[in-house]
UniProtKB/TrEMBL annotation:
Location of the Lipid/polyisoprenoid-binding YceI-like domain: 35-199
Organism: Paramagnetospirillum marisnigri
Name of the featured protein: Lipid/polyisoprenoid-binding YceI-like domain-containing protein
Pfam families: YceI
Keywords for this protein: Signal
Superkingdom of this protein's organism: Bacteria
SMART domains in UniProt: YceI
Organism placement in taxonomy: Bacteria, Pseudomonadati, Pseudomonadota, Alphaproteobacteria, Rhodospirillales
Transmembrane segments: none
Signal peptide limits: 1-20
Length: 201
């Protein structure tokens, strides 16, 4: 019985070097140029809003496709396109999930997807930028700005593919997209918090 912990420690020690040798760099100039697609297993879109003045409610989307082209010599010439499966919304409260999908709100039977397509990219710092684009949600298209941070890029230590990671935030008013249910009791402003890993193709 006493050998089991020792065996476990030895096993962990044996695999640790593989995880310790990440080549991720925060220098955007070292990112490989070209086309990237999102790794769905490491990508989330989290939304939050004020609930009745008492708390902040959260939900997320993890079922979405995204494609990016990146030009390290001229990042402003890069592009981003995203398509979100609205039926994949998760709040961990099944009744609320069903309500979000109903005609009161997202109406996923009529509007099964939301999309974002970049129209301009502005570099604001060594690892930051602003991605302006058109968000189509609930059949309405409005401009939205993603404040973006480049986390790092390099060869993934496990799958040996070149990966680039980003975080982003944005704020929007749901009423701008025809989602006015329970206003103004439930907050109009929605905050998006996004984290993604993209794999070079």
């Amino acid at each position: 019985m006493k050998l089991a912990p020792l065996v476990l420690v030895a096993a962990l020690a044996a695999v640790q070097p593989a995880f310790a040798q990440s080549s991720a760099s925060t220098d955007p100039a070292k990112v490989e140029a070209g086309r990237y697609v999102v790794d769905k297993t490491h990508a989330k879109i989290i939304f939050s809003f004020n609930h009745l003045g008492f708390s902040t409610s959260y939900g997320l989307f993890s079922d979405f496709d995204a494609e990016m082209t990146f030009d390290p010599k001229s990042p402003a010439k890069s592009s981003l396109a995203v398509s979100v499966n609205m039926d994949g919304v998760v709040t961990t409260v099944p009744k609320f999930d069903a309500h979000l999908k109903s005609p009161d709100l997202f109406d996923t039977a009529k509007y099964p997807t939301a999309s974002f397509k970049s129209t301009a990219i502005e570099v604001t710092g060594p690892t930051t930028g602003r991605i302006t684009g058109e968000l189509t949600l609930h059949g309405v298209t409005r401009p939205v700005v993603l404040d973006t941070t480049f986390n790092g890029a390099g060869v993934h230590p496990m799958n040996k593919k070149f990966v680039a990671g980003f975080n982003a935030t944005a704020k929007l008013k749901r009423s701008d997209f025809g989602l006015g249910y329970a206003l103004p009791v439930v907050g109009d402003e929605v905050t998006l918090t996004i984290s993604t890993e993209f794999v070079h193709q």
